[in-house]
Design a protein that fits this description.
By secondary structure, the protein is α/β, with parallel strands linked by helices. The N and C termini lie far apart (105 Å). The strands form 3 sheets. Strands 2-3-4-1-5 form a 5-stranded parallel β-sheet, covered by helices on one side. A 3-stranded mixed β-sheet has the order 8-9-10. A two-stranded antiparallel sheet has the order 6-7. It folds into 6 domains: 6-174, P-loop containing nucleotide triphosphate hydrolases (Rossmann fold, 3-Layer(aba) Sandwich); 180-241, Helicase, Ruva Protein, domain 3, CATH 1.10.8.60; 246-360, Zinc Finger, Delta Prime, domain 3 (Up-down Bundle); 367-400, no CATH class; 409-527, 2-Layer Sandwich (GMP Synthetase, Chain A, domain 3), CATH 3.30.300.180; 529-565, no CATH class. It has helices at 6-9, 22-33, 51-63, 77-84, 101-110, 133-144, 164-167, 180-194, 200-209, 214-227, 234-241, 246-257, 261-273, 278-297, 301-304, 309-319, 324-343, 348-360, 367-378, 409-412, 416-419, 427-431, 433-443, 445-451, 473-479, 482-496, 541-550; strands spanning 40-44, 90-94, 121-126, 150-156, 171-174, 383-384, 390-391, 455-460, 463-469, 501-507.
């Protein structure tokens, strides 16, 4: 007898042998037992998951000499003929090569004839979505009201291309992709029956590569049995299929952890020289970090990662070197690089850039830590690092903080004559404005940052009008909130002793106004000329001469302006 491929030799002959489709097989067996078999079915799903096999078993179950029975005997003449594909009552039609209206017309003419030996004449049309629109229309009436001795079974990988008028006349069953572990169990049975010496890691690698298709996995196992000699390992499967070995992904993740860009680029260069596809490399690396995240988060990673226990242990060990934020950052960065790889003529460059970015980046700060930093900044407890950035502050109870952390107690103690200064006197407010800003800085830094862009413009009665430059409308809106207004009024009272109400108005920038952040020891930090000085003293003499010649003035933020103290 000629050689039979594994996919044909070990094809299921009863419903119980079909792997991973219990929701379909159970319903069909019950329908046969209860005599509720429909006149038309459509089996939809990915390739190699058992659609045509289920159709043949259903045909055997209906025409079995001992049936109809949920489990065909596979011993009678009818079952044997169907299994061998020689039954005159079971017509398997390829929808791709018999897609025209003429073929469907012939089918309509033939359905009226009774079956030759079995109970039913069964039409199995594979890839039915390939039929033309005219062919589907010609089939409608026959499909809706066929003779009692006729059953239709359609199979398709693209059910969305089948017209709704056809779908509505059929009972639809959706076949699922088969889990890798179920495929691996089936491959182990075949390997045992064939006497193959193959490791579990190699079988699992074949199962993963099949992408949920049992037939694909059986074809690869058949191929590897002819290719390898002796014990078959995962390395043999990797070489035959041209896959990237898992060890390379562990090397890349280790280089990312150690910030070693040179080593990562070396690993990538080796893989490309071996003929590996860059898109395959990046997809494999994304899956690698996915497995690391599962090993870090899941209580039972063995159930969620399709690999052998030794690999799961390695994923767990690798997970100790990464935070969840780091892992997600790696996945997002690599996913974004896929778009560049698809568009670039040199697909290697985007992958190299992504690896360099991942190896040179710093640690990703968790969101809750960022929120703590923001809260601490608003409380004024900030520690600057050597780069000028912000380190995580020490969170200090505000009740233990001094009322004015940046103002010396000697500066804040004011004579009684100043505390009783008339409300309409703005000079006291002007002279102490930087101290007001600094006092507010200790309470809520964000508000103080906005306020330092403004200045006391005028005061009528007990209402202080604060001018905000016209281009800073957002600053004005923030400062006008009830809470922020109260904080500013409290700081004014703390520093000057005056109980004032404040109002904000948009103004043009005054010539002497400066736009920079205040220093705690700078009385002019709020943007006012030094006492006894003028705005003109701040202008460079050469620039002043140029202004007099051309009749110009100094614009806000001009880099030529200098402070002379």
């Amino acid at each position: 007898m000629s050689y039979l491929a594994f996919a044909r030799k070990y094809r299921p002959q009863v419903f119980e042998d079909i792997v991973g489709q219990s929701h379909v097989t159970t319903t069909l067996k019950n329908a046969i037992s209860q005599d509720r078999v429909a006149h038309a079915y459509i089996f939809a799903g990915p390739r190699g998951v058992g659609k045509t096999t289920a159709a043949r078993i259903l045909a055997k179950a209906l025409n079995c000499e001992k049936g109809p029975a949920p489990k065909p005997c596979n011993a009678c003449n009818s079952c044997k003929e169907i299994s061998q594909g020689s039954s005159l009552d079971i017509l398997e039609i390829d929808g791709a090569s018999n897609r025209g209206i003429d073929e469907i017309r012939n089918l309509r003419e033939n359905v009226k004839f009774a079956p030759s030996s079995g109970r039913f004449k069964i039409y199995i049309i594979d890839e039915v979505h390939m039929l033309t629109a005219e062919a589907f229309n010609a089939l409608l009436k026959t499909l809706e009201e066929p003779p009692k001795h006729v059953k239709f079974i359609f199979a398709t990988t693209q059910a969305h291309k089948v017209p709704l008028t056809i779908l509505s006349r059929c009972q639809r069953f959706d076949f699922r992709r088969i889990a890798s572990k179920d495929i691996a169990e089936n491959l182990k049975k075949i390997a045992k029956a064939e006497g193959l010496n193959i490791g579990d890691d190699a079988i699992m690698l074949i199962a993963k590569h099949s992408d949920g298709g049992m037939r694909d996995a059986q074809v690869v196992l058949d191929q590897i049995a002819s290719w390898a000699s002796g014990k078959i390992g995962a390395g043999d499967v990797t070489k035959m299929l041209g896959l990237v070995e898992d060890e390379a992904f562990f090397e890349l993740s280790d280089s990312i952890n150690k910030k070693d860009a040179n080593f990562a680029l070396g690993v990538l260069d080796r893989l490309i020289n071996e003929g590996k596809d860059t898109l395959q490399i990046i997809l494999g690396l994304i899956e690698h970090f996915r497995n690391i995240s599962i090993a870090k988060i899941a209580a039972d990673p063995d159930r969620l990662i399709d690999t052998v226990p030794d690999k799961i242990k390695r994923y767990k060990d690798e997970a100790h070197h990464f935070t969840i934020e780091d892992i997600l950052y790696c996945i997002y960065t690599l996913s974004n690089a896929i778009d560049f790889i698809k568009r670039a003529s040199l697909s290697r460059i985007p992958l190299e850039a992504a690896l360099v970015k991942l190896t040179l980046k710093g640690s990703v700060v968790p969101l809750d830590e960022l929120m703590n930093r923001i809260e601490a900044i608003e409380n004024g407890q900030v520690i600057h690092n050597s780069r000028g950035g912000l380190n995580l502050p020490y969170l200090v109870d505000k009740s233990t903080m001094p009322a004015k952390s940046t103002i010396d107690s000697a500066e804040t103690s004011r004579p009684a004559s100043e505390e009783t200064r008339p409300a309409g006197d703005i000079d006291g407010v002007l002279g102490a404005w930087s101290k007001v800003v600094n006092d507010l800085m200790a309470k809520k830094m964000s508000v103080a940052t906005y306020l330092q862009e403004g200045y006391p413009a005028s005061m009528e009665g007990r209402t202080l009008s604060i001018g905000i430059p016209a281009g800073l409308q957002f600053h004005k809106e923030v400062l006008e909130s009830v809470e922020n207004r109260r904080l500013i009024e409290d700081s004014i009272k703390t520093v000057t002793g005056l109980e004032l109400k404040i109002a904000f108005t948009l103004v043009e920038q005054v010539p002497g106004q400066r736009r920079r952040s205040p220093r705690p020891d700078d009385d002019t930090a709020a943007g006012f000329p030094e006492e006894g000085g003028s705005a003109e003293k701040e202008v460079d003499p050469i620039l002043k001469s140029a202004l007099e010649i051309f009749g110009g003035n100094v614009a806000e933020g001009d880099p030529q302006r200098r402070r002379t103290r």
